[in-house]
């Protein structure tokens, strides 16, 4: 994600154990089928499931119903420090549909934006599971990844995201034995924004230096962040879409503090590339390619194909290109081409494209300095977990995705205009009240050999 994600964490009126495991609500992962395809044109169906991220879950005392975290504040008697908090508190199971608006049917996952039950839930983040206690790990070099998406009910200011991060397959249980919940309860999240709102990092509560958010009643930030390589396959709403590799100088989930995290004025001094190298068709000069009634018509479902090509066309070669295709109404749609002064007509992400884009837009090129596509490929060698989420943006109102950003320079400057949404759009209080019924549907996930997952 481009800005620091301010994800929502709220407490329920039931019980469970923080990094311990609670027993008030049974944890039953909603099933979701996916398909693995081969060059012969055959695809095999795999029965999988999804799990809700631990940050959304109710956190309470291991032996009772007392909240360890309420609103955006820790109970300092239960959580005077990170290690003690992990002993005292437990994460509970989730009512996926009733509390979080998360439902599955066959190969389709629906994420509702706002769900009102005992309390109001806003947004969600889920991971694909290989089994009950492990995330499914993807190795996508010289492979492609395909899914259908329906964003027709996703307006300005929202982000229906599908992406990969270099999390531990078991959610960190092996590396951090104080983490008793693991992937079964959605622990171990990380990304290149090194988010500070993660309540447990490395098996300890992130209570040190915790500050409640001024704008989000459900979130705050601690001293530590959780960093790792991130491949944003799809960050989008009905008005804009971006595909963005981000890389870090480290491999696997890493807890950061201080300058390492790249916060604020130190954005380009940290261990991760927060900007990434994005291909947003609108930002790259084609303002009629993706949106309502456009070439890729976001008023109805379509297929997104992403190919991860290597220099030698093998799974062991260096990642050299990320190519995008779309399929809608039976027609294969090639990606838009760059139309920016001083840039060639690129239509995919390569290191050459990234360097040219950074120069044309006057952006800092930490993508290159931290390893570029080769580093992204190394993350896939190690294995990356699939994330799907819907969220709003308390940092900059999602303007970086679908509007003009930054707002203090002319929108006519190269790279500033990113979508047709107004610069006044995307305010969380506004979208949460006016677009509460928004949702995104991801379905028909397929992965495998190049050219095997969609009809040509």
TrEMBL record:
Q: Which GO terms describe its biological process?
A: cellulose catabolic process
Q: Which GO terms describe its molecular function?
A: cellulose 1,4-beta-cellobiosidase activity
What this protein catalyses is: Hydrolysis of (1->4)-beta-D-glucosidic linkages in cellulose and cellotetraose, releasing cellobiose from the non-reducing ends of the chains
Q: What is its EC number?
A: 3.2.1.-
Look up the domain of life of the source: Eukaryota
Q: Name one Pfam family in it.
A: Glyco_hydro_7
Family, per entry: Belongs to the glycosyl hydrolase 7 (cellulase C) family.
Q: What is this protein called?
A: Glucanase
Which organism is this protein's natural source? Sanghuangporus baumii
